[in-house]
Amino acid sequence: MAVPSPGDWRSITEGFQERWNFPLCCGALDGKHVQTKAPPNSGSMFHNYKGTFSIVLLAVVDARYRFRVIDVGGYGRTSDGGILANSTFGQALRAGTLHLPPDQPLPGGEHRGAQPHVFVADEAFPLRRELMRPFPGRLLPLEKRIFNYRLSRARMIVEGAFGVLSSQWRMYRRSMELRPEIAEKCVKATCVLHNFLHCLDERGAAAVRGVAPAVVEPLQGLGRVAANNSSREAVLVREKFMAHFSAEGAVSWQPKE
């Protein structure tokens, strides 16, 4: 897997800070089930929780709805967290070999110390030092509700990208009558085309504004590997982000009571 450079990750974090007010964020992570015809003798491997057969698209999306890292082909019966655990991206995240930028303080939060660059995900994924998920539960104190709101606002970008993908390509609206290996190639192709079309839209808008357009960057692929558990350090990192969002990192539109 060709890993983006620290400079590439830094550019993504700047986008999340400017557009979605989530600092040190290297991308929004989620998985999408893609319905397919069950291959012969596959048993329940491709059978997902909705009772249909599927493969899984696991993706990291940047602040501009572009796919930056993808894994296609996880079995439908596997959870999003399980797909992550079985991907090269998941192993690299655990091992600290993604070449993320060095830890640094949150904006205005030098007194909290240097914090890691992180990805944002929903509750289906494990909490890790570089992977933030929401606090569980409903009757949460205000600080935790604010953190969940801010994380959700940044995380919804990946759901938006999946929505655009489904609206652009009709193959996502019905079960694909293709062998899984062919379906995987089709999904990867649509992700590349999605980025290309998005870049064309930005170029057109940039031409009107008279500013430099974005550059299409290569899409990174993923393989498969093993799992990891959250740690006390991950809990502490989430608490630092939580405190930041309720103090020097607060925005006027977040929950106040």
Structure in words:
The chain is of the alpha/beta class and about 260 residues long. It has helices at about 5-20, 80-85, 90-95, 140-170, 180-210, 230-245; strands at about 25-35, 55-60, 65-75, 120, 130. The chain has a five-stranded mixed sheet with strand order 3-2-1-4-5. Mean pLDDT is about 85; it is low at about 210-215 and about 225-230.
Structure keywords:
single chain, 257 residues, alpha/beta, five-stranded mixed β-sheet, 6 helices, 39% helix, 13% strand
Strand order of the largest sheet: 3-2-1-4-5
Return residue spans where pLDDT drops below 50 for at least 5 consecutive residues: 211-217, 223-228
Say how many strands there are.
Answer: 5
Note the gap between the termini. 45 Å
Order of helices and strands: HEEEHHEEHHH
Task: Specify the biggest β-sheet.
Answer: 5 strands, mixed
DSSP strand (E) fraction? 5-15%
- Shape descriptor reads globular
* Radius of gyration from the alpha-carbon trace, in angstroms: 19 Å
Structural class: alpha/beta
Count of discrete alpha- or pi-helical segments spanning 4 or more residues: 6
As a percent range, the share of helical residues equals 25-40%
